[in-house]
UniProtKB/TrEMBL annotation:
Annotated protein name in UniProt: Lysophospholipase-like protein 1
SUPFAM superfamilies hit by this protein: alpha/beta-Hydrolases
Record-stated family: Belongs to the AB hydrolase superfamily. AB hydrolase 2 family.
Molecular function GO labels: carboxylic ester hydrolase activity; palmitoyl-(protein) hydrolase activity
Amino acid sequence: MSFFAAVACLSHTCDSGQGLKNWIKQVLNQDLAFQHIKIIYPTAPARPYTPMKGGISNVWFDRFKISNDCPEHLESIDVMCQVLTDLINDEVKSGIKKNRILIGGFSMGGCMAMHVAYRNHQDVAGVFALSSFLNKASAVYQALQKRDGALPELFQCHGTADELVLHSWGQETNSALRALGVSTKFHSFPGLFHELSTGELEKLRAWVLAKLPGEMERPKE
């Protein structure tokens, strides 16, 4: 099969790329798959994680605490930005255009995707963040103050009953990015905790197809 586009789905804390793929399949009762799109599920490296008292976990970066009101652990974030940049560059070398790549994820994965796209790859097709947030003084906001040109659209979903990553944190992130010039979509899911749901994955599927249409769906130039 020849792929015309790619989506990188970043897993959440303590999970692997395969674990996220399996979780999505369990929720949807089928894989998240498209004929013309390649789905990539990278796995975060094992590292000491401060919120787990230094225990080893597969996380994209470290946090001082799970809060939107503390400094970011930029040293670990920047290392992973480079790792994911290498992944994006590999897809470009394989023939996929940058504007046919989406990057996103669940929880910490969504946060990581926003850092990668809005700080380093403002020419990707879009970003999605499920149950995710940025810290109030995020380096992402600082980078966007120096933006030049159009920015990738952001698609967010968040459960109103999320007790780990508060719904208000997701809303604040969305509002801050919109104020900085990002076109955003934000979908609230009443009663949903820190988890995936069929409804949000179906909305995500529709958004992916809108951003990365197949050859037959592309508008004529």
